[in-house]
Write a structure and sequence with these properties.
binds iron/sulfur cluster; Rossmann fold
């Protein structure tokens, strides 16, 4: 996932997984002569992010990793709390995910890194795989792979170093390291289907140990059998970002929110 001497940006949320990734990658970087930076994205959710920013800053300062904070507000002019009041039926998590991915790309370009690492664990990969299937959103399956190589369009490699580790094991790692991590849950987390999928998969794993790994293998192998639309052919008519259609998901989302805000003002 990492080559010698690369500049790596870690997405650190202040949760147990991202703090474990921070510790592990910082350690690996010593023998790789890699430069490690960390960033926390502030979605603008009152009572949720403040604590995690402080925890992330503290962990980075102990390990000597430069830490940055960027907010949705810096790039899109909306916080998630504002979006919550404007959105229609979409789940907060789907909007948040769309904006977070773009924020991550913009920060990676700004800081000129080679690699962006996120702390998705085995459970996250399995849940996302199933959610994409249930939503008939198969074009997103390749984005769930543990390694996404750089292309002409996306200069940074995206990696998920914890992709094969159970969430439970990361919790144990965190406990053994006496890690202080954020325990407050996002107030919007139960709107999406993810919590239900998590419960179902956990029951399946209990009854059929190892089934999460089978799901994981499918999540990794299925994209190889797909013929994907060529993203390179399309550019968003508003922001010129690579997309599968005329307008990218970020611009479509922001347009909807602006329309809603204009109507409310009238
Ligand atoms: Fe965003 Fe959903 Fe995560 Fe909250 S739970 S931070 S809304 S993705």
């Amino acid at each position: 996932m990492l080559n010698y001497g690369e500049k790596v940006l870690l997405m650190v949320s202040g949760g147990k997984d991202s703090l474990a990734m921070l510790r592990i990658i910082k350690n690996v970087a010593k023998s790789h002569a890699s430069e490690v930076l960390a960033v926390t994205i502030d979605e603008g959710i009152q009572g949720y992010r403040e604590d995690s920013i402080e925890i992330s800053e503290n962990a980075c300062s102990i390990l000597g990793v430069p830490h940055y904070v960027f907010g949705f507000k810096d790039f899109f002019d909306y916080t998630m709390d504002e979006i919550e009041l404007l959105k229609d039926t979409e789940s907060s998590c789907s909007i948040c995910g769309i904006l977070r991915r773009r924020t991550m790309d913009l920060i990676a370009q700004k800081l000129d890194v080679h690699v962006v690492a996120t702390a998705h664990n085995l459970d996250d990969i399995v849940q996302t795989f199933l959610i994409n299937l249930l939503n008939s959103d198969v074009k997103r399956l390749p984005w769930n792979l543990p390694v996404h190589h750089e292309t002409e369009l996306f200069n940074q490699r995206r990696i998920k170093p914890l992709a094969e580790i159970y969430e439970e094991e990361l919790a144990l790692y965190s406990f053994l390291n006496k890690e202080r991590f954020q325990k407050v849950s996002c107030p919007y987390m139960h709107e999406g289907i993810r919590s239900e999928i998590r419960d179902i998969v956990n029951v399946l794993e209990k009854n059929h140990p190892g089934i999460k790994y089978s799901f994981f293998k499918s999540a990794v192998n299925v994209p190889g059998f797909m013929s994907m639309p060529e993203m390179e052919r399309f550019r968003c008519e508003k922001c010129n970002y690579p997309t599968f259609s005329k307008k990218c998901s970020v611009c479509s989302t922001l347009d909807k929110l602006r329309n809603k805000r204009t109507k409310q003002v009238k």
